[in-house]
Amino acid sequence: MSQIGVDRWVEESESRQQQYSGWTAPARRAFDKVRPGWRLALFLGLAALYPLLVSPSGVRIGITVLILAMLALGLNIVVGWAGLLDLGYVAFYGFGAYFYAIVSSDQLPAHWPTWVAIPVVVAATALLGALLSLPSRRLVGDYLAIMTLFFAQVFVEVVRNFSRLPGEPTDITGGPNGITGVDPWTVFGFSFNTFNRNFYLLLGLLGLLIVGLYRLNDSRTGRAWRALREDTLAAEHMTTPVNRLKMLAFAVGAAIAGLSGTIFAAVQVGVFPNNFMLVFLITVYAALILGGLGSIPGVVVGAIAVAFTPEILRNPGAAGWLFYIGLLTLLLVTLRKRPMVAAVVAGVVAFGYLLRAASLAIWGDTILGVPNDTFTGGFLDGWLLILGEHQDMASNYAFVLAIVGVLGVILTRGWWRVVALIPTIYLAVFVWENKLALQPSITRQLLFGGVLMVMMAVRPQGLLGTRRVEIT
Amino acid sequence: MSAAILELRGLTKTFGGLTVIRDLDMTVGTGEIVSVIGPNGAGKTTLFNMISGIYQPDSGDILFDGSNIIGSTSDQIANLGVARTFQTLRVFLNMTVRENVMAATYGATKTRMWQSVLRTPAARREEAEVRELAEEKLAFFGDRLMGYRWDQPAYSLSYANRRRLEIARAMATNPRLLMLDEPAAGMNPVETHEITELIGRLREEAGYSILVIEHDMHVVEGISDRVVALDHGVKIAEGSFESVAEDPAVIEAYLGYGAARSK
Question: Could you tell me if residue A133 is inside a domain?
């Protein structure tokens, strides 16, 4: 290897920068040239068209996506930047929602004007966040996580059970029944009382939030937060007042959650304890981690993916496609050799026809039920047994057999694996069409979990995140 | 010797039953380079940790520029003008090289969060100043940390460059006393030689007083105005490099009783 001087090394540094490869490379290079401001404008512009294209229920889903995006951006400050594992975050969202609902409904009764209610609620939530940061002075990592988790749990229990102050007749939180009849946001006489209006309100706030966070990240405060995450001790030695910055991270994150909560309460026209359970916290974390911890566009994309995927899976046809594509991908990944793939496909087709013919010969065609009314279901009709009256029992046994088959596939190698795959795939399709496709509410969760697992396995750093180096 | 910038009086620290530093008196004069040597476990890093505020001493005083800094937090001490590097490198790995140095200016800057969000003229001005300061500090290391490296993550740097980055970061806190914990550890002979020259330049050009822990005796010989030898937390020798190197107690601490006697 020839020696090169420092000057040339520096000169050629451009060419050593990360190179894109594959067929998406030109598009990605072009996208890299777009400035962040224009990217945001593009995103907001496209999102603004969304309500025009979908039904009111679609707009409602869009609102869920935007609230989730705002929450995930707030959580990103605490977890993604400052590196503090906060599992009490959902309580700030709940606190904001409840506080707004209490001062904007017949509950007290009080109907504060929006321009009073919002600043007060947001400031109070920020204060609560600052309070919860106190344990983080001494606790980090898992210990802080457990501590904050208690807080989230305590919040829900308090709201559910201590609905009135001792000796006071007034019901404050409504207990398990929650609060209903919450006022919409009203600014200068303009009331955000429809899904469309709230959608645009949220979109505007999200845009402002993204600009603000983008600037904050690249500022004195943002750098101090990230230094804190990388090495708290070193950050402190480099003139960073660690405790104040932890408090600031908690407070700002909480304020964003509180603001999101007020809109949630207004859109839902009510608040209930069940809205603020740990399941929802996990959803926010899923959006954050799936999108890419620490990355603003990543978090927004993560929120979109996490909120939309279950809605897409609600449609049995779409869920079916996902199932079959997943099956095919799995087949290609586990075999890797084309003759084997061809053998498996041929084997599965033959196996299906033989089994169907044999079953009909033994039991007659009275066992047949009605094929599923989806594109994939229609395509499989004539090959697959769709059972009639014994459907439930048979598919339960088939489920167990399919799992045994999967174990067989894992334990075998080479052509034995091909042999094991043939009945396993048939059984999987059988179970899907006879059982899972008919119960979308269960299947949805299963598939959603599967999608998340695959996405994280493929990109551990998240969709738009950058890989972090811990120790080298 | 001019007035002492750092003065330790009767410093004692115990961990459980183990006395790590015993009744230590020591000074660093303004503009002086003092080396602390001693075998592993002699208490050198504990000494640094007490000065930088990680540990509280059990008794004794630490006077920086005449005032006692015991009880102050590490960020307060850093703001007063004591900066340090770490024996095990502690750069902010997932931040860019420039950001690493800029992060060390937190205490010296004033921009509030809302000013950053609104990008007010004051915030922009300060940001530009901090950026310039960081680049100036990085330029101190010649072309080692220049140009395209500024925007690369710190984890992409080599070991030697991470050490340099840590020193640049410490310089950005605008210190008067710089404490270097084994700056030449893990360096090859050429880099070790560079570090020796660099420490001299840090005093001549940047005007710091320097307290350094070092095991490499070539480095110690090359830089020190004065050497302090510790063993089991007790100061066993102090003076010029030559006098300390010849001291029987020091030879005994490093090589054992027999070696000391045969001398």
Answer: yes
